[in-house]
Design a protein that fits this description.
Layout (H helix, E strand, L loop, with lengths): L3 H8 L1 H39 L3 E5 L12 E2 L2 H5 L5 E15 L5 E9 L13 E4 L8 E5 L9 E4 L2 E9 L10 E5 H9 L3 H9 L10 E2 L1 E6 L5 H9 L4 E5 H12 L1 H32 L1 H9 L4 H30 L11 H27 L10
Parallel strand pairs: 4-9, 6-8
Antiparallel strand pairs: 1-11, 1-12, 2-10, 3-4, 3-11, 5-8, 6-9, 7-8
């Protein structure tokens, strides 16, 4: 039996391919949007994984350094170490900075301060692509490869000059900003100490200048393998002016509280693009059906059953959807690495999108089927 869908596509294959490519670009953007969401989830957990702590201790009534402001005393790390089930502690600071790149462009970075000689070092050696980690208490910095610096380049932060000693790849904040690392003492000066001009101004106003540089945003701790981190966190919460989260709770804070709004927005855009793609496919099939309405009338006049006409339209729609998905997949894989934020394309998401497109194509074909079934066989005689 002659395949009517194949014959019809072969008759205007160039138009069909170009149409599939156009719809495919929309589907490629859908895949990129899903990939951006996957990348946000990974970015939000990079620092958690690199620090490798079991507990995050922060200021009372706060959700910690990633979600809101938190300030606690640095010496808390020594107090926590007296707990029999805590084996390692470290004080960390987190702050946003603007750094001028070698190209003269100001870029926002996420600065992490830590003690290079402490128990817990957040710089993951596997992410170092050049140089080393911090080995001094002052004026060294580890930067992201995205900033364009080279080893031994210098960067001015605050009132001091820092030398680049290491370059990392893949270390970002929950918002996707590239991360840099400085010593704890340097980060405390950048975040908590006032500038000389501010100090002079406050003194002229008669204010007491008592800025405390021995503050941090969080103290992290590693517990013994046999201990219950949740139980230890509950003990710490009973201490004055403290809150504590296990690493699992911190992951939930990052994925639900910090990036929840952004993920919902991406989800809405994705749904809208899928709906638009479905409407476009429906309009294309409807238009193609109108173009050959006379031929369909002739088919009916010679006694061709409706089921064959329906099959032709549905096959064309499904083929269009499949081709659009293939072009969309190729398009997404060609441009994904051009985006400033991390994009993660997973096979599972592609298969899910393929199933959605097949269902959408079948639904879209109903518009063409309806028009074909309404075609009058006598119209073929009327010319």
């Amino acid at each position: 039996m002659i395949n009517l869908a194949y014959k019809d596509i072969a008759h205007s294959y160039l138009k069909f391919i170009i149409t599939a490519m156009g719809v495919g670009m929309l589907l490629g953007i859908v895949m990129i949007m899903i990939g951006v969401y996957r990348g946000m989830i990974i970015d939000a957990q990079v620092l958690l994984d690199d620090v490798g702590a079991d507990l995050w201790i922060v200021q009372e009534n706060t959700l910690g350094p990633f979600a809101e402001s938190s300030r606690i005393h640095e010496d808390l790390k020594n107090t926590l170490k007296t707990h029999p089930d805590i084996v390692k502690t470290a004080a960390l600071t987190f702050l946003n900075l603007q750094i001028q790149t070698p190209g003269g462009v100001m870029k926002r970075v996420y600065c992490i301060g830590y003690n290079p000689f402490g128990d817990i070092v957040p710089v993951n050696p596997k992410r170092l692509v050049a140089g080393r980690g911090l080995q001094k208490s002052h004026y060294e910095i580890v930067v992201s490869h995205k900033l364009g610096f080279k080893i031994k380049d210098t960067i001015k932060l605050g009132r001091n000059i820092y030398t680049v000693v290491g370059i990392t790849k893949g270390v970002v904040s929950s918002g996707g900003d590239p991360a840099v690392f400085v010593s704890l003492k340097d980060s405390q000066e950048l975040q908590f100490l006032y500038s000389n001009a501010r100090i002079r101004n406050d003194r002229a106003r008669g204010l007491k200048v008592d800025a405390d540089a021995h503050l941090v945003n969080t103290v992290v701790a590693k517990t013994s393998p046999s201990s219950d981190s949740k139980k230890i966190a509950e003990e710490i919460k009973r201490w004055k002016h403290l809150n504590a989260f296990t690493v699992q709770e911190e992951r939930e804070i990052l994925t639900k509280n910090v990036i929840e709004t952004a993920s919902k927005q991406i989800g809405m855009f994705t749904i809208i693009l899928i709906v638009v793609s479905t409407i476009i496919i429906a309009l294309i099939i409807y238009t193609m059906t109108l173009e050959k309405i006379k031929e369909i009338s002739i088919m009916k006049l010679i006694g061709l059953p409706n089921i064959m006409i329906i099959k032709m339209i549905m096959q064309e729609t499904i083929i269009l959807g499949i081709l659009a998905f293939i072009f969309g997949n190729l398009f997404a894989h060609l441009i994904w690495d051009k985006f400033p934020k991390r994009v993660v394309l997973e096979n599972g998401d592609a298969f899910m999108l393929f199933a959605i497109i097949l269902i959408a194509s079948i639904l879209a074909s109903l518009f063409g089927v309806y028009k074909a079934l309404k075609a009058d066989p006598l119209a073929a005689i009327g010319g």
